[in-house]
């Protein structure tokens, strides 16, 4: 069966709407890199102001920025249900998200309550507008495995946002929640395993077979993976008072599900029908390998209390999951989404014949994408080892900065080719 069956390309939003999200995201990746280069405390403990600013630069500024832009594109095409008033939603989401993330980072770095107050207002506007529009779209959407993954991911995002809002109010000195430690743990779990992981899994069911020319995921996996992980995640997040053995069982279920998804994805990619080199595939393989490494690190911690209580353990999990998995996969998706959209809208606007406009592959020079992957891979390796040999962290930050800059240049080159060949933004 065609992997594009059921896709509604005619409902795609204007190119400029998701593009503004995609072009903003690498700037926050660069900001995260500069925090590592300029602030050694960024990787000293997960609770330092620099580490908190770094985490939110990556999760809000880069990951959420790209993922919200991708949802704006995918909801009409994959779910057949456009966002209501997409232009207004794009403006009222992207601008407040960018400014709100910057204010939040300043709040952490300067310990300034007014910055947290500004961040609360801006992020509140951005996420409230997008979540309201996404809920309307997803309620109207025809259900399939990817749509269900999106629904559960958006629900996780809403819960993550509400918990984050309370935590930000606490930082601003407005409220003091009675169970802030449990709330913080739920915020982290729902944000990373709910919003990020579930959305990647749901989207993978569609884009891995379509763009990487692999066999489809097993039907039992695509049908049950996201609902089961979401239920386990809710049990883990909503009931902090569970007996330790039950908590371990729930966490083991989450770990098994994550491991299963990563291993099956790597297996499908090994069976791809097109054997040509593809940098997107390299980003995905790095992401899946990092996901397996994350689970391995967690397993080791279950048998080594000293390791589980160390400062390095949560930082290593963060580097592997956020940097190695999430940033890698999202980066790889950008190299498929942006060239495809540039080609698609150029063809639609010009009614062009084959050969008269650049192909998808020609939109971004392959050599530059390959160099960006090398910088990103070096950054992941150096930052991982930098947790144990701090002198390497500075070099890792520099590699991440080069990766972010080249990603921005590469995306802009696709836009430049789009405009040069007669494309216009409406």
Please give a structural write-up.
This protein has 426 residues and is mainly alpha-helical. Helices cover 78% and strands 0% of the residues. Helix 2 (49-78) runs antiparallel to helix 3 (86-110), helix 8 packs antiparallel against helix 9 and helix 9 runs antiparallel to helix 11.
Give the integer mean of the pLDDT values. Answer: 90
Q: What is the 3D form?
A: globular
Residues in helices, as a percent range: over 70%
| Alpha plus pi helix count | 13
Instruction: Kindly provide the radius of gyration, computed on alpha-carbon positions and rounded to a whole number of angstroms.
Output: 21 Å
Listing every helix as H and every strand as E from the N terminus to the C terminus, the arrangement reads HHHHHHHHHHHHH
Spatial separation of the terminal alpha carbons: 34 Å
Largest sheet entry = none
Uncertain regions spanning at least 5 consecutive residues:
1-5
How many E-type strands? 0
Q: How big a fraction of the residues is strand?
A: under 5%
Which secondary structure elements does this structure contain, and how are they paired or packed?
Blueprint: H1 16-38, H2 49-78, H3 86-110, H4 113-140, H5 145-171, H6 180-212, H7 219-238, H8 244-270, H9 279-303, H10 305-308, H11 312-350, H12 366-386, H13 391-420
Helix pairs in contact: 1-2, 1-3, 1-13, 2-3, 2-4, 2-6, 2-11, 3-4, 4-5, 5-6, 5-7, 6-7, 6-8, 6-11, 7-8, 8-9, 9-11, 9-12, 11-12, 11-13, 12-13
């Amino acid at each position: 069966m065609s992997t594009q069956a059921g896709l509604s390309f005619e409902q795609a939003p204007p190119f400029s709407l998701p593009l503004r999200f995609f072009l903003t995201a690498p700037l926050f990746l660069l900001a995260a890199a500069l925090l590592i280069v300029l602030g050694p405390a960024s990787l000293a403990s997960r609770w330092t102001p620099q580490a908190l600013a770094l985490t939110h630069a990556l999760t809000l500024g880069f990951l959420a920025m790209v993922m919200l832009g991708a949802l704006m594109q995918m909801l009409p095409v994959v779910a057949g249900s456009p966002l209501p008033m997409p232009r207004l939603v794009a403006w009222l989401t992207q601008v407040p998200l960018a400014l709100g993330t910057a204010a939040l980072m300043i709040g952490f770095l300067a310990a300034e309550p007014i910055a947290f107050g500004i961040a609360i207002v801006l992020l509140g506007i951005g996420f409230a507008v997008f979540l309201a529009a996404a809920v309307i779209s997803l309620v109207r959407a025809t259900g399939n495995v990817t749509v269900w993954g999106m629904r559960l991911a958006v629900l996780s995002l809403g819960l993550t946002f509400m918990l984050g809002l309370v935590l930000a109010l606490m930082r601003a000195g407005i409220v003091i929640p009675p169970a802030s430690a449990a709330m913080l743990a739920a915020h982290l779990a729902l944000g990373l395993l709910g919003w990020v992981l579930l959305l990647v899994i749901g989207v993978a069911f569609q884009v891995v077979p379509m763009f990487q020319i692999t066999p489809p995921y097993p039907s039992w996996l695509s049908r049950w993976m996201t609902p089961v992980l979401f239920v386990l995640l809710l049990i883990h997040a909503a009931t902090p008072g569970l007996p330790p053995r039950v908590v371990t069982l729930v966490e083991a279920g989450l770990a098994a599900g994550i491991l299963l998804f990563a291993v099956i994805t790597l297996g499908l990619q090994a069976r791809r029908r097109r054997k040509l080199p593809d940098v997107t595939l390299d980003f995905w393989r790095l992401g899946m390998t990092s996901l397996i490494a994350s689970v391995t690190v967690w397993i080791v911690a279950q048998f080594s209390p000293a390791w589980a209580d160390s400062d390095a353990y949560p930082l290593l999990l963060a580097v592997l999951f956020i940097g190695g998995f999430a940033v890698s996969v999202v980066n790889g998706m950008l190299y498929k989404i942006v060239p495809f959209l540039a080609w698609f809208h150029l063809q639609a606007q010009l009614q062009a014949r084959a050969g008269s406009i650049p192909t998808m592959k020609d939109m971004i020079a392959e050599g530059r994408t390959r160099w960006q992957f090398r910088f990103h891979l070096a950054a992941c390796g150096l930052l991982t080892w930098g947790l144990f040999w701090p002198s390497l962290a500075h070099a890792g930050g520099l590699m991440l900065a080069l990766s972010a800059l080249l990603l921005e240049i590469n995306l802009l080159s696709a836009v430049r080719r789009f405009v040069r060949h007669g494309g216009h933004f409406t």
